[in-house]
């Protein structure tokens, strides 16, 4: 019993000593005030510490400490990131205070220049690959110290206005399924809100370092998959120039989706050509929105899902994705802005740079092969992947998930990550700018040749005018031997194809039929088979045109070109074949769309060096009567000469029309118009052509259109000033208005 009592007393004594020691240790722990500081970049705060012994040594990992003793002033750095303050007293005891510095990045001129250059290169990539280069912008902002959630939010803010502009541009080409884009956009918006909530919760629980790790890991996985596919396609394209391939049908999954009939949920989508249940669009949109809220790029899911799950063609899927990007980008920007994560300064600087870059990038695409475009994108993706991957160990170390890394190791990884990003951006910029410079030199040579041709023409015209002072001579134009017809497999193209074949028969000329496929390399890695099917469909249609031409006794060649700018491919093909006349269709628009005529047709007229025949959807050239508008200018003379040549081929009479504006009647314009008409009438009569004359007053375009309808004209010939740019697209001249509103074909004669 006595032994038991002794043992009990010993245990109690040990426990007492443990409690006293624990209490002493607690009393000796450092106590910081405030215990959880809340401050933003460059903000100052007073920090106090108690429970220390003797002199203190303060050390901040990021910010600045001013003062000494138990009370000091702390000044946060200009970067919103995790701060760790260490205090050591005279006995060697040490304690740390860790907290997050909030707010926005403190930016100076060098940061602004860096962001502008990043935006510029991002724009170059966007213009060059035909889609968004936003995947380089989030990592670039993170490399400056911007927290991942803020980089994603600011990227979405900069991106959604560009998505709106891009979708409107692609809609002009008939590639946007607006209904599908809006329906998917609704569920994508839900995905964005959910993804943004996850981002916010990760930041609240794990701080900026947790958010940085989350976004970096997603980037590594996504870029590894997408970049790998793109590089594989680039290598395959380089090794093989074969454009053929077996026709690929819609995937089994897409066929099943299109076959399922769920009552009250079915909706028809033009891009699919059938009805599907809107329920199938929900997971597609939600996943797209989730990814967009995570890395600011949702197209890596949205586009392949629209193609493989829903069955949309590749080009329509990529164009429709821009509508989705606008919807979810706007909503995501509002959501993140309400939480205080959108730095409008970063968004605007990047947007300013990208607006310049996207134009140059689009020009550069014209002068390189497809495999090079894919190669540029794939290389940039892989380099950005490694740049983010090098930061992952740093984030894991800061979170305490792995053994702490030494300061030297962290510095090496940080510098290596930044250097890898710079190499990625520089690689893309150098290749794209090289293509741009190469293209600029080629264009300069073409302009010099055109100027030389114009100078020769002007000199010849001056000699003729001096030799025949009372009777100007018409310029020797109007050849129709080499004919190029442009087809987009639409109803409007059918008329152009028909009239091109008939023209080749009448002139004993040769015919080339071409189509242009829009390029979008970012999504070709996912939609290669679908794009191959589209190519096979285009080829099959061109073969039909060729067969029809051959049956009519006309030699015909077919061509498919790929490019970002359709008009440029048409002009390049015409120049390559020394084409005499380009035949294009005109859709049956009404109102403002009819006035605008179509940007591709307008640009072809503005840039092509040869004649252009524009054929409205249901119009035919029967040889009833040719109307030519003349005004005494050399462009009017060119039109008259072309009309005379066409009249010989059609065995048709010519109606000469000169319109004098009502405001010009008092200035002798009527007499000049009479002289012009008599001169041209004499020229045509001498050539054996039946000529009628109409001299009227009023608004030229309206008068020409009214006479054409009244006289049952089936071909109008007008001259073109060959303008390009905004004035050409906005259809400002008399010729342009006639082209937009005439019910019969219009021949635009070029000098």
- Low-pLDDT stretches: 19-27, 241-248, 463-477, 589-598, 722-732
**Radius of gyration from the CA trace?**
35 Å
**Class by helix and strand content?**
alpha/beta
The helix content is: 55-70%
Task: Note down, in words, how this protein is organized.
The chain is α/β, with parallel strands linked by helices and 751 residues long. Helices cover 59% and strands 15% of the residues. The protein is built from 23 helices and 20 strands. The strands form four sheets. The protein has a ten-stranded mixed β-sheet, with helices on both faces. Strands 1-3-6-5 form a four-stranded antiparallel β-sheet, with no helix packed on it. It has a four-stranded mixed β-sheet with strand order 2-8-7-4. Strand 16, helix 19 (634-650) and strand 17 form a beta-alpha-beta unit. It is elongated and about 115 Å long. The N and C termini lie far apart (126 Å). The relative contact order is 0.08. The model is unreliable at 19-27, 241-248, 463-477, 589-598 and 722-732 (pLDDT under 50).
Layout of strands and helices, then pairs:
Blueprint: H1 2-28, E1 31-33, E2 39-40, E3 44-50, E4 57-60, E5 64-66, E6 71-75, E7 82-88, E8 94-102, H2 109-129, H3 137-143, H4 148-172, H5 178-239, H6 252-259, E9 266-269, E10 274-277, H7 281-295, H8 299-310, H9 314-338, H10 344-365, H11 370-389, H12 392-399, H13 407-467, E11 482-486, H14 491-507, E12 510-518, H15 521-551, E13 556-563, H16 566-576, E14 581-586, H17 591-596, H18 599-607, E15 611-616, E16 626-629, H19 634-650, E17 654-660, H20 669-686, E18 691-697, H21 700-710, E19 715-719, H22 726-729, H23 734-741, E20 746-749
Parallel strand pairs: 2-8, 11-12, 11-14, 12-13, 14-15, 16-17, 16-19, 17-18, 19-20
Antiparallel strand pairs: 1-3, 3-6, 4-7, 5-6, 7-8, 9-10, 15-20
Helix pairs in contact: 2-10, 2-13, 3-4, 4-7, 4-9, 4-10, 5-7, 5-9, 5-11, 5-12, 5-15, 6-8, 7-8, 7-9, 8-9, 8-15, 10-13, 11-13, 16-18, 21-23
């Amino acid at each position: 019993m006595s032994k038991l009592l002794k043992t009990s007393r010993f245990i109690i004594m040990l426990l007492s000593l443990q409690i006293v020691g624990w209490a002493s240790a607690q009393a000796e722990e450092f106590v910081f005030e405030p215990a959880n500081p809340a401050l933003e970049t460059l903000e100052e705060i007073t920090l106090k510490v108690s429970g220390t012994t003797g002199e203190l040594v303060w050390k901040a990992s990021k910010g600045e400490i001013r003062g000494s003793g138990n009370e000091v002033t702390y000044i946060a750095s200009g970067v919103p990131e995790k701060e760790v303050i260490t205090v050591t007293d005279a006995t060697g005891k040490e304690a740390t205070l860790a907290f997050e510095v909030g707010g926005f990045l403190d930016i100076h001129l060098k940061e602004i220049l860096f962001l502008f250059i990043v935006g510029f290169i991002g724009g170059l990539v966007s213009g060059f690959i035909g889609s968004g280069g936003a995947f380089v912008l989030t990592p670039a902002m993170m490399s400056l110290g911007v927290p991942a959630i803020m980089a994603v939010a600011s990227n979405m803010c900069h991106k959604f206005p560009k998505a709106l502009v891009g979708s409107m541009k692609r809609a002009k080409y008939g590639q946007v399924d607006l209904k599908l884009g809006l329906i998917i956009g609704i569920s994508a918006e839900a995905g964005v809100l959910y993804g943004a909530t996850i981002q916010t919760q990760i930041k609240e629980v794990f701080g900026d370092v947790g958010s940085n790790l989350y976004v970096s890991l997603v980037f590594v996985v996504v870029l590894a998959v997408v970049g790998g596919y793109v590089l594989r396609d680039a290598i395959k394209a380089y090794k093989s120039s074969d454009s053929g391939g077996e026709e690929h049908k819609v995937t089994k999954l897409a066929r099943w989706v299109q076959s399922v009939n769920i009552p009250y949920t079915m909706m028809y989508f033009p891009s699919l050509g059938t009805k599907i249940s809107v329920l199938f669009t929900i997971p597609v949109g939600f996943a797209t929105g989730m990814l967009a809220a995570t890395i600011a790029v949702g197209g890596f899911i949205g586009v392949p899902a629209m193609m493989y799950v829903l069955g949309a063609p590749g080009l329509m899927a990529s164009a429709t994705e821009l509508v989705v990007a606008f919807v979810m980008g706007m909503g995501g920007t509002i959501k993140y802005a309400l939480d205080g994560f959108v730095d409008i300064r970063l968004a605007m600087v990047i947007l300013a740079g990208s607006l310049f870059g996207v134009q140059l990038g689009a020009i550069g695409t014209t002068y390189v092969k497809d495999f090079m475009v894919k190669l540029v994108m794939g290389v940039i993706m892989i380099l950005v992947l490694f740049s983010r991957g090098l930061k992952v160990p740093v984030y894991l170390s800061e979170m305490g998930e792995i053994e702490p890394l030494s300061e030297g190791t962290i510095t090496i990884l940080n510098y290596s990550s930044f250097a890898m990003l710079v190499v990625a951006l520089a690689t893309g910029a150098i290749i794209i700018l090289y293509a741009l410079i190469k293209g600029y030199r080629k264009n300069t040579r073409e302009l010099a040749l055109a100027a030389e041709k114009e100078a020769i023409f002007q000199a010849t015209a001056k000699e003729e005018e001096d030799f025949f002072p009372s009777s100007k001579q018409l310029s020797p134009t109007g050849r129709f031997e080499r004919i190029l017809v442009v087809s987009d497999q639409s109803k409007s193209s059918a008329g152009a194809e028909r009239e091109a074949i008939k023209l080749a028969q009448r002139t004993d000329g040769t015919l080339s039929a071409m189509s242009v496929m829009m390029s979008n390399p970012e999504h070709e890695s996912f939609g290669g088979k679908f794009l191959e099917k589209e190519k096979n469909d285009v080829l099959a249609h061109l073969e039909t045109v060729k067969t029809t031409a051959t049956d009519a006794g006309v030699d015909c060649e077919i061509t498919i070109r790929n490019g970002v700018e359709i008009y440029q491919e048409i002009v390049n093909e015409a120049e390559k074949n020394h084409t005499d006349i380009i035949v294009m269709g005109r859709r049956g628009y009404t109102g403002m769309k009819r006035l605008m005529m179509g940007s591709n047709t307008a640009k072809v007229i503005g840039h092509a060096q040869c004649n252009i025949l524009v054929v409205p959807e249901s119009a035919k050239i029967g040889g009833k009567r040719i109307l030519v508008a003349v005004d005494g200018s050399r462009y009017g003379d060119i039109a008259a000469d072309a009309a005379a040549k066409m009249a010989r081929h059609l065995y048709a009479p010519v109606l000469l029309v000169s319109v004098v504006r009502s405001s010009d009647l008092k200035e002798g314009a009527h007499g000049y118009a009479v002289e012009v008409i008599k001169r041209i009438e004499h020229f045509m009569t001498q050539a054996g052509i039946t000529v009628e004359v109409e001299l009227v007053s009023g608004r030229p375009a309206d008068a020409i259109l009214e006479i054409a309808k009244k006289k049952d004209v089936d071909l109008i010939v007008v001259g073109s000033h060959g303008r390009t740019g905004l004035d050409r697209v906005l259809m400002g001249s008399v010729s342009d208005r006639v082209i937009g509103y005439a019910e019969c074909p219009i021949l635009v004669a070029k000098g």
